[in-house]
Amino acid sequence: MARTGQARTAPLWALAAFLAAPPGGHAEVQGYVGIQSRWFPDTPLDQRQRSASQSLVVVPEWYQQFNNGDDSINIKLFYRHDHNDPERRHGDVREAYWRHVGGGYELTVGVNTLFWGVTESRHLVDIVNQTDQVEAPDGEEKLGQAMIHLALLKDWGVLDLLVLPGFRERTFAGEAGRLRSIPVTVEEGVYASSDGDEHIDTALRWSHYVNDVSVGLSVFRGTSREPLLFLDSERGEAVLRPYYPQMQQSGLDVQYVNGDWLWKLEAIYRDYLGNKLLSRTLATDFAATTFGFEKTTVDIAGSGWDLGWIAEYSYDSRPASVAPFDDDLFLGARLSLNDIAGSELLMGVSQDLTVNDAHLAVVEGSTRVGTATRISLELNYFHSNSPEDALFPLRQDSFVELGIDYYF
After folding, report:
1. CA 205 to CA 116: how far, in whole Å?
2. Tens of pLDDT along 25-55?
3. What pTM, to 2 d.p., does this model score?
4. Contact between 101 and 131 (Cβ < 8 Å)
5. Which residues, if any, are the signal sequence (predicted)?
6. Sheet holding 190-191: strands in order across?
7. 3 belongs to a structural domain
8. What residue numbers bound the domain in which 369 lies?
9. b (16+ CB within 10 A) / e for 123-161
């Protein structure tokens, strides 16, 4: 049976943050509850999988300020119940931290989610949090990460220093779940470090704005958030086991605003630190980059709508069987209606320039109904006829998703 990532430290961080909050001050309680339905038009690879699934999600948040606004407590909890896949019935502490704002610095202690990056189609430099893969295939949903985060706010930029105790294993769909992408059982992870999931990782990022250019330089050293999968048959049953090596990643992100044009770039170099298992997992040091632009046309024909055209190219030095964006072009468009309902639509297609019959497409749209309800519709289409391509295992898992969320 697949095992979702465990976080023994996350509930303790949440409890400590809650107990540490003093009475009084400005407090807010908000969040949302929602239902989600997915429909898979293609026949599944595994007969235990279903053509449709429904789930319920609950995401409460609590925020409190005190000490004249210099200190705050944030807690954001997450729980989803999926009627088909036991591995998608999971809870997580997305946020549970105390933050102090001082003269020229901010200190955050607890569980938090941080996003680094600027590009649309691929987030290379976003390395701090583990991907919650059972939530969405695009890698944008993240598990909470315990951290001590000191941000130094200087005239020469912002310097983020992070100490990351504890590690979250990546979540995988269960045997009855869709978007499984692999035909064999996933077992618990193996670690290069003798500390296992208790290894303490570190990260550093410098960012700064110079006129219309923003630049970020980052370094991460610790347990890789991206597992390397190897076939393990030592116990008599062949299982696919995630291996989490030690690695160092150096990253660069740049964004340049020039009128209606927004130019973006992300680039990384990942160095896997040596271990005897690496030869079994196709692990090699690699470089990757994504760059492109978004051109926005404002107030189309006096309609009040804004339309942004997106084009990005992705390169990865790893083979196509390991990296789904090894030589790919992404073309898309973002439509904002600028109405009171906050209606938006994003469409895009990513085409592999090496494997002609490998591509994926996404359509995401959402609008608000009334004052508290948001309806979203999403389509994810995967196509590949080449067994050597990383998209090939997902060829039967294209889906349409309808979500209705009520905010309180």
Report:
1. 9
2. 678 999 999 999 999 999 887 778 889 999 9
3. 0.89
4. no
5. 1-27
6. 190-191, 239-244, 228-232
7. no
8. 9-407
9. bbbbbbbbbbbbbebbeebbbbbbbebebeeeeebbbbe
